[in-house]
Amino acid sequence: MSTARIAAASVLLLLSLSPNLCKRTGVWQWNLPKGFPEPRVPVDNPMSREKVELGRRLFYDNALSQNRTQACATCHQQKFAFTDGRPQAIGSTGQAHSRNSMALTNVAYASRLTWANNLVDRLEDQALLPMFGDAPIELGLPDGKTLVDRLNVDPRYRELFAKSFAGDAAPISLRNVARAIAAFERTLISGNSAYDRYSRGDTAALSESAKRGMTLFFSERLECFHCHGGFNFADSVDHAKLPEPERAFHNTGLYNVDGKGAYPAGDRGLYKQTGKPDDMGRFKAPSLRNVAVTAPYMHDGSIATLDGVIDHYAAGGRTIESGPNAGAGSDSPLKDKFLQQSIIYSRRRVPCASVSISTGRCRSTSSNSASRSPCRHRRAPIRRAGTSSS
Ligand code: HEC
Ligand code: HEC
Predict the structure, then answer these.
(1) What fold, for 23-185?
(2) DSSP string covering 149-193, please?
(3) pLDDT tens digits for range 200-259
(4) What integer is the mean pLDDT of 292-320?
(5) What is the DSSP string of 65-107?
(6) Which amino acids bring their CB within 6 angstroms of ligand 2?
(7) Same topology for domains 23-185 and 207-365, yes or no?
(8) Domain residue spans in the chain?
(9) Could you say which of 12, 45, 262, 371 has the lowest number of CB atoms within 10 Å?
(10) Highest CATH level, class, for 207-365
(11) How far is the CA of 36 from the centre of ligand 2 (A)?
(12) Is the four-CA dihedral 329, 333, 334, 340 of positive or negative sign?
């Protein structure tokens, strides 16, 4: 792994979870990392300690799957920042999902939910999708009554629902299950990485290599921060202080199966929902917090390592040599404008083994000489998360 790659990868290394369950009497109090805004909380689902506790219990309960083999936590495991380590998820009856399970850290700040959906914007609504979805089957519940009946026989649930939804005539309802899970998910806050500590003044928190990666990450040359910017390293962001949620979907040139930018028929991103040609291959830029533990990567888990992700961006899009998905992503006309140029490769597409931070030139190349194919990159101004547009 080259120095530049290590650096670029290291700056993304993440952090510890800091569950923020502090509460003053009667009032929910967020205990957020410095610089983090309060999440926007729907008025019909205020936070409370009891509700979060109930939501956590539900999140880990196999009763949420019809055959009692899976819970939300099966595919969203804390040790992987609440993803599952698989390329693509496998549901409770063994059906394969076409997509990679998403990390849930800081999901309270996601303005759009799932990989490519412009409509699902509330955690309360999203929670119902894995419970009842049948293409593919995830938790496989046939209906809400089945779940409500299961929970009703458990005295602990009766107590927790009654406390969390005091005043409801029938506190155990599907709606309240989704509300409690959403309240729990909003507490999965992560914001104490080495990067955060460095940003707060601890100059020893980042290695020299990571600092070089940070410079590259926030440079106009690599452009990473345009889509993975702000405190959450994402650009589909919402929080209580924003006038309205920010949202964006991008084609990163991961596929180009027809020379015109098409993605494989199984998953064409936002295009599936809108039918607009420009939405082909457009996906949400996921938050890069905790990205060190969320492998494999991308919406279909098709890149195994962070090194591989950097290779994809370095080439300005992935080239697949053979098979049904063969094609040069770097030539895709649908690729986002921030990825128009290959970033570490020269115009002749000769890969630089590493790039000098001081000169922006290739130190050496893996095949041809650097002098024949210099990486002509100016040094770019550094922008930090929190000062970028998102
Ligand atoms: C079988 C594995 C599986 C199970 C079980 C599962 N999920 Fe997921 N989850 C996924 C996959 C795969 C995605 C991406 C889906 C997509 O893009 O269509 C996802 C996406 C999400 C997202 C969107 C995150 C974001 O940043 O946009 C949330 C929130 C979520 N799941 C919560 C839950 C909750 C709550 C449960 C339990 C009720 C649950 N999941 C059960 C696999 C699973
Ligand atoms: C034009 C917007 C854009 C830019 C610029 C961009 N990304 Fe991304 N990034 C995305 C999108 C969209 C995805 C998901 C693509 C997919 O799954 O098809 C993604 C995925 C990733 C992932 C995988 C995350 C995961 O959980 O699977 C990593 C890591 C990543 N990008 C790092 C970077 C780095 C490093 C740079 C700079 C070299 C960069 N990105 C530049 C939009 C962007």
Answers:
(1) Cytochrome Bc1 Complex; Chain D, domain 2 (1.10.760)
(2) HHHHT-HHHHHHHHHHTTT-SS---HHHHHHHHHHHHTT--B---
(3) 999 999 999 999 999 999 998 889 999 999 999 999 999 999 999 999 999 999 999 999
(4) 96
(5) STTS---HHHHSBGGGTSB-SSSS-B-TTSPBPSSPPPP-TTG
(6) 8, 222-224, 226-228, 250, 252, 254, 283, 285-286, 288, 291, 294, 297-299, 306, 309, 313, 336, 338-339
(7) yes
(8) 23-185, 207-365
(9) 371
(10) mainly alpha
(11) 22
(12) positive
Residue 308: alpha-carbon gap to chain centroid: 17
Smallest CA-to-CA distance from 311 within 11, 5, 6 is with 5
User: Model confidence at 380, in pLDDT bands (50, 70, 90)?
Assistant: very low
The H or E element containing residue 131 is: helix 128-132
Closest ligand to residue 138's CA:
1
pLDDT for 10-67, tens place per residue? 444 443 344 444 444 457 999 999 999 999 999 999 999 999 999 999 999 999 999 9
**How long, in residues, is the chain?**
390
Cα of 47 from ligand 2 centre, angstroms: 32
Q: Place 344 in a pLDDT band, splitting at 50, 70 and 90.
A: low
Taking Cα atoms as reference points, which of 349, 268, 363 lies closest to residue 316? 349
Q: Which of 107, 228, 345 to mutate to test the pocket of ligand 2 (most atoms within 8 A of CB)?
A: 228
- pLDDT confidence of residue 179: 98
Distance in angstroms (rounded) separating the CA atoms of residues 261 and 331: 8
